[in-house]
Amino acid sequence: MAHEYGITKPKGYNVTFHYNPNMERHHFGQTHPMKPWRLTLTKSLVTSYGMNFAMDNYTARTATYEELTNFHTNDYVDFLATVAPQPTPLDVDNMHPDLKFNLGGSDCPLFEGLYDYCSMSAGSSLDAARKICSKQADIAIAWGGGLHHAKKSEASGFCYINDIVLAILQLLRVYPRVLYIDIDVHHGDGVEEAFLSTDRVMTVSFHKYDPNTFFPGTGALDDNGPKSEHNPGAHHALNIPLNDGITDEQYSSLFESVISRCVEKFRPSAIALQCGADSLAGDRLGKFNLLVEGHSSCVDYCKKLNIPLIMFGGGGYTPRNVARAWAYETAVAIGQHKNIPHKIPEHTPWRERFRQDTLLPTIEQILGEPRQNRNPEKKLRDIVQHVTEQLRFVSH
Ligand code: VJV
Ligand code: CA
Ligand code: ZN
Fold first, then answer.
1. Is residue 271 within 8 Å of 179, Cβ to Cβ?
2. Beta carbons of 283 and 318 less than 8 angstroms apart
3. Which of 18, 72, 148, 149 is labelled catalytic?
4. Is position 149 annotated as part of the catalytic site?
5. CA 245 to ligand 3 center in whole angstroms
6. Residue 151's pLDDT is what?
7. What is the mean pLDDT of the chain?
8. How far apart are CA 375 and CA 250, in angstroms?
9. Which of 14, 84, 351, 363 qualifies as a FRET site for 342, CA 20 to 30 Å off?
10. Regarding beta strands 56-59 and 139-142, do their DSSP bridges make them parallel or antiparallel, or are they unpaired?
11. pLDDT digits (tens, 9 = 90+) for 254-294
């Protein structure tokens, strides 16, 4: 009965949606913050609003060993493929000698079906990238991807395989320059590191930054990659470090100031946007005051640039709010966010999990009292100033 919302294909451009229903079967552990089930909850909202009628929907393939080793080392991928699942995580904080490739601790546990889970996440992002390369999609969505911390030969922060790096490598076969934007509350360190020495990828991460208390502790404002004369990638890594409690108004105005300058100087031929939803208010790990409105305004801004766009998932630890954000951002992609009713459709599976029956709850409904905002306007002006100075070194 999704037709009741009158959602049809967008005019003049095409959106593809890449989803693998088997990802949700995987569990990091009972109380681990990462819950693959949030993808099912997202899909359920997307479908109950009838958004599937406006997109080409694909069941994502699993990535092959050869695809995974386009970025990761063979020994790391071999180990991931063959290691036995561990019933209880090891104590990483005590440097357990059995930990190889940073696997098996509490952040990156060795759960049942881990290799399949990783290949599904990577497969959905690679499928999305290929649709952008073949011009069959103008916007491609892969909510199962976005695992930005994984390194060439190491797992990190709930991430094992860096599907984003794999997808960007695919885009680089066709597009001369890719702009990577990361609105997850954590620093996109794995993607930044992978492209530090090339001027064909510019990385920009917005994140909470506190080197002593907040993971991963990197991503300071003046960290713009190795500045040597021989490094073409110098000045192509941008970091936007923020404090607790940033609001929608501040975040979206900062986003537009930063990204408009990047687009003007770097002139990307494709954009890869990591939409981590842990930057939303009320997230179990996040610390910001963002609503779906502010978070999705970043997606809307990117869409309006009319540059081929991939949207990835990422963090997000309060599943009902993750599903709200990613469903609403799917609506932004198909140009229907102003038209869909805010009331969650009656027939939505797991409707009771959303607590409030609205897609766009207020900050009071989410938090009671908003978190204290520790981002003075001067800090935000200084950030834009620094970005502008870095971009003087960039021209295409
Ligand atoms: O802060 C850390 C690292 C420690 C060592 C491991 N202990 C458990 C926590 C402190 C230094 N890790 C972060 C990783 C955040 C990853 C974010 C990923 C993304 O959103 O950017 C992209 C998908 C961290 N913060 C919170 C936790 N770990 C955490 C892990 C748990 C947990 C509670 C909190 C693991 C297991 C269980 N509870 C049961
Ligand atoms: Ca980020
Ligand atoms: Zn995160």
1. yes
2. yes
3. 149
4. yes
5. 16
6. 98
7. 96
8. 9
9. 14
10. unpaired
11. 999 999 999 999 999 999 999 999 999 999 999 999 999 99
Residue partners of 44: CB distance under 8 A and separation at least 6: 323, 348, 349, 350
Residues near ion ligand 2 (CB < 5 Å) are 182, 184, 188, 205, 207
Ion ligand 3 residues within 5 Å by Cβ: 184, 186, 276, 278, 315
Report helix, strand or coil for 184.
Answer: coil
Q: How far apart are CA 354 and CA 344, in angstroms?
A: 9
pLDDT band at 190 (very low <50, low <70, confident <90, very high): very high
Distance 214 CA to ligand 1 centre (A): 10
Residue nearest atom 32 in ligand 1 by C-alpha distance: 32
What backbone phi and psi angles, to 5 degrees, belong to 242? -125, 165
Domains and CATH numbers, the chain: 2-391 (3.40.800.20)
What residue type is assigned to position 80 of the chain? L
Question: From the CA of 211, how far away is ligand 2's center (Å)?
Answer: 14
What does the pLDDT look like over 161-176, one tens digit per residue? Answer: 999 999 999 999 999 9
Q: Which two tokens stand for residue 85?
A: 């699942």
What atom of ligand 1 comes closest to residue 215's alpha carbon? 1
ipTM: 0.98
Q: What pLDDT, in 10s, does the model give residues 76-97?
A: 999 999 999 988 777 665 556 5
Ligand 1 center from residue 34 Cα (angstroms): 9
Q: Check if 83 has its Cβ closer than 6 Å to any atom of ligand 1.
A: no
Three-state SS at 21: coil
- The rounded Å distance from CA 94 to ligand 2 centre is 28
> Which of the listed residues 107, 148, 205, 322 should we mutate to test ligand 1's pocket, taking the one with most ligand atoms within 8 A of CB?
107
CA 64/CA 46 separation, integer angstroms: 28
Residue 182's SS3 state is strand
pTM tops 0.95: yes
Strand extents, DSSP E, the chain: 15-19, 56-59, 139-142, 178-182, 201-208, 237-242, 270-274, 309-312
Q: Give residue 35's identity as a one-letter amino acid code.
A: K
Q: Is the CB of 147 under 6 A from ligand 1?
A: yes
